[in-house]
Design goal:
About 45% of the residues lie in helices and about 15% in strands. The protein has helices at about 15-20, 35-40, 85-100, 100-110, 120-130, 135-150, 155-170, 200-210, 225-240, 250-265, 285-300, 315-330, 350-355, 375-385; strands at about 70, 75-80, 180, 185, 185-195, 215-220, 245, 270-275, 305-310, 335-340, 360-365, 370-375. It has an 8-stranded mixed β-sheet, sandwiched between helices. It has a two-stranded antiparallel ribbon with strand order 1-4. A two-stranded antiparallel sheet has the order 2-3.
């Protein structure tokens, strides 16, 4: 059903952070004392509670001694979470169209019994802005559409709508890029997002896709502020039969550090690191994200290999603000757009493509695992303008 690793899934138990540490080599840890201090201090050096997660003797090591992930010589493997069965694929597209129905109604109503004139373009401009496509993207789309209509001498309003689909698909095309796994082992993926965006659920669904395809996955419960988040991630780990590194009240950076080192010791393919939800305006928490990223780099000098932001498709232009803020803070490599089922603001992806074209790896339109699939620009444009 899915194309990815073609090996038998690894059946491994759920573990606590202390159990994960026990799997590490018995030699002294090669992370220097300064790095331990960084993992145990908050933004600006403020002390945090002792986590008890960093293991080994760190007193006589050099800062240059860094644990690194292995580099796999083969080319990266594209994570294509696409159902190959025509019936299932058709059902997914129906769910996508249904999810974007409200967005499509705003825009599609413009082309009902309309003539190709200035009034049409004015109504279309209003509809695009209402869908949260943004001023820049709306201006770009309208100008491209006018040029196309004039150049191709289009006189049928339905052909104008078809041309709009093509223009939208072209605008969204730079966002269409699959997640690639395998260049590094383990591939370390750091997951971020605001509270309620569906971050932990998306981690669980992605874990399921990877596990079903044969990749060995380890989860890191770095959202240590909410017990419910750890419990939710543990439930996904148990459901998918994968390892999880977790510790009550631990420093998120230390949990992330232990997860990466444990994954290296166990030969895992992927590490998915959950982080606490936060608003871009919470400066101290955004700084903590930077700290987590720094500590991950001390466990592996090439990690994190992916930094993904999960955004709620219903938040419209606020989603664009989140993308800009998180990207400026920690450098995003990809997006997961959730909760597109029933949104009237699907046009925000046009705004993202215009102003901050970060790849959209996956889109979600429901609660089931198969409701999270790869983003396809032309499919999305067709669904949004159906």
């Amino acid at each position: 059903m899915f194309s990815f690793f073609k090996k038998k899934p690894s059946l491994t138990p759920i573990v606590d952070a202390q159990d994960a540490a026990a799997t590490l080599p018995t030699e002294p840890n090669t992370i220097g004392a300064a790095r331990e201090a960084d993992a145990r201090t908050g933004p600006g050096g403020a002390p945090t509670a002792e986590s008890g997660l960093l293991t080994g003797d760190v007193s006589d090591t050099s800062p240059a001694d860094t644990l690194t992930t292995g580099v796999v010589p083969e080319a990266p493997i594209r994570v294509e979470v696409v159902d190959k069965d025509p019936a299932s694929r058709g059902a997914w597209l129906d769910r996508l169209r249904g999810g974007l129905k409200k967005t499509g109604q705003h825009i599609g109503s413009v082309f009902v019994s309309a003539r190709i004139d200035d009034a049409l373009y004015e109504e279309l401009e209003s509809a695009l802005l209402m869908s949260d496509a943004g001023v820049k993207a709306t201006a770009h789309v309208l100008q491209a559409l006018k040029t196309k209509v004039k150049k191709e001498h289009i006189t049928d309003v339905q052909l104008v709508k078809a041309g709009l689909v093509e223009i939208f698909a072209d605008l969204l095309a730079p966002l269409e890029k699959p997640l690639a796994i395998g260049k590094h082992k383990p591939t370390v993926i750091m997951m971020t997002g605001v509270n309620g965006a569906g971050k932990t659920t998306s981690i669980g669904k992605l874990t399921r896709h990877l596990s079903d395809a044969g990749a060995s996955v380890l989860l890191a419960a770095g959202d240590t502020f909410r017990a419910a988040a750890r419990e939710q991630l543990s439930a996904w780990a148990e459901r998918n039969n994968v390892d999880i590194v977790s510790h009550n009240g631990a420093d998120p950076a230390a949990v992330s550090f232990d997860a990466v080192t444990a994954a290296m010791a166990r030969g895992k393919d992927v590490v998915l690191i959950d982080t606490a939800g936060r608003l871009p305006t919470q400066t101290h928490l955004m700084q903590e994200l930077q700290k987590i990223k720094r500590v991950i780099q001390k466990a592996s000098d090439t990690a994190p290999h992916e930094v993904l932001l999960v955004i709620d498709g219903n938040t419209g232009q606020n989603a664009l603000s989140q993308v800009k803020a998180f990207d400026d803070c920690i450098g995003l490599t990809g997006l997961i757009v959730t909760k597109l089922d029933g949104t009237a603001k699907g046009g925000v992806l046009a705004a993202i493509a215009m102003e901050r074209p970060i790849p959209v790896y996956f889109v979600g339109v429901g609660e089931s695992v198969l409701d999270l699939q790869n983003f396809k620009a032309h499919e999305f444009a067709q669904a949004m303008l159906a």
